[in-house]
Amino acid sequence: MAITLTEKAAKHVTNFIAKRGKGIGLRLGVKTSGCSGMSYKLEYADDVQPDDVVFESHGVKVVVDPKSLPYIDGTELDFAREGLNEGFKFNNPNVKDSCGCGESFNV
């Protein structure tokens, strides 16, 4: 089991945490939402809960709750800039289908 970041995503997280002045890494999970069933939860992590699973990629910790892990195992997180838009892009090998707007997915 593994969650990884591209070098570009890791650099973005590291820079943001430095500007923020606190944090240990990134917290990634899923929640029930959207027209396809699930959506990603992404936030900066300030701590690790006892049941969390922690991965490290390019020097950045990625914290995942155990209930979310089966849905996102193997995911690579990238940071992309397309025109005026920028943000994280999820390359999740478990996704079977996603909605037209790209906000939700199912496995």
What features would you describe in this structure?
With 107 residues, the protein is α/β, with parallel strands linked by helices. Helix content is 17%, strand content 45%. The chain has two helices and nine strands; from the N terminus they run βαββββαββββ. The chain has a four-stranded mixed β-sheet with strand order 3-2-5-4. Strands 1-6-7 form a three-stranded mixed β-sheet. Strand 4 and strand 5 form a beta hairpin. The longest helix has 14 residues. It is globular and about 35 Å long.
Low-confidence stretches are: none
Mind telling me the C-alpha Rg? 14 Å
What count of helical segments does DSSP give? Answer: 2
Beta-strand content: 35-45%
What structural class should be given to the helix and strand makeup?
Answer: alpha/beta
For the largest beta sheet, what order do the strands appear in spatially? 3-2-5-4
Helix content: 10-25%
Using DSSP, what is the number of strands? 9
Main β-sheet, in a few words?
A: 4 strands, mixed
Mean pLDDT: 86
Ends apart, CA distance between termini: 16 Å
User: How would you describe the shape?
Assistant: globular
Order of helices and strands: EHEEEEHEEEE
